[in-house]
Amino acid sequence: MENYEQRTVIRKKDKALLAALAIFAIVVACISIVGILLIKPDNSITQGQADCDAVRVSGKLPGRVETLYVKPGDYVHKGDTLAKIYSSTVDAKLYQAQAMQNAAAAQTEKVDRGTRDELKKSAQSMLQQAQAAETIARKTFQRMQSLYEQGVITEQKRDEAKAAFDAATAQVAAAKSQYEMALNGAQNEDKLASKSLANAAKGSVMEVKSLLEDQYLVAPCDGEVSEIYPQEGELVAMGTPIMSISKLSEMWVSFSVREEMLNDLPMGKEINVTIPALGNKETKLKIFYVHDMGSYATWQAAKAYGEYDSKTFEVKAHPTEAIENFRPGMSVILKK
Questions:
Q1: Which pTM was predicted?
Q2: Residue 37 lies in a domain
Q3: How large is the angle between the packed helices 88-113 and 188-213, nearest 10 degrees?
Q4: pLDDT (tens digit, 9 = 90+) per residue, 252-263?
């Protein structure tokens, strides 16, 4: 009888323990369900990111970064001087090009001025000598011709005198041509060639000077210096980016959304958003760009039936008004 009562007490304790465990399990399950519901993100929220266009500043001059006049974070205006690049090679090319230009200019001046007076006088003297020789040769031929007709000299002597007279006449013609050339100066072809060489040398100087003008890099637009790549003293090649300028006046926000949301985000629509970094500031954006992000951004269906693959689209929107302290990289929240 006593054993029976003990077994009855033990059974009651076991039932109470099981009941307590069951109640505890139910409570834990309820807490878990509530936690999951509370932690589960709101699917109606879409997060975007602020960004802006950036311009990379580079130059045509290879050389060494001599001076940086700005630092990251500085706001610059279009035309402000940003950096100076020094190149000893280009300086040497300029010196060489200027020397060639001076030589070409001197040659052109010489051609335009014509033949020197000394050469003109020499050509005139040669012409006079040829004319004097021709006169003597003509008289000698006339005498020989007369003697030949009288039968005093042979025909050969007469022909020799005639050949000497013809040679003297040819010498006069040649000397006269040289004298006229000295008086007229260089030919038009020579003048044109000389001027072309001078213009080519001038063009070389202008080309090198244009490179030297580019040694001072200036801001192509208003904006903030977001990044500077080389340090002072570093060598840079032609076209190497020196720094980037962010156009903060042209901010925009980019969202990545599934295609089923596009019906609520048409082109030109104004949407309400909040900016957590600015104290959850509320503002409006206007959509100006909608484009798919390619096959790499496709949401694959988890089931073979009842679901479909959904593509991801990039949606960009401009602020409808300027937002103070709004900067690239800030998160922007879009709620349905």
A1: 0.52
A2: no
A3: 160
A4: 999 998 888 888
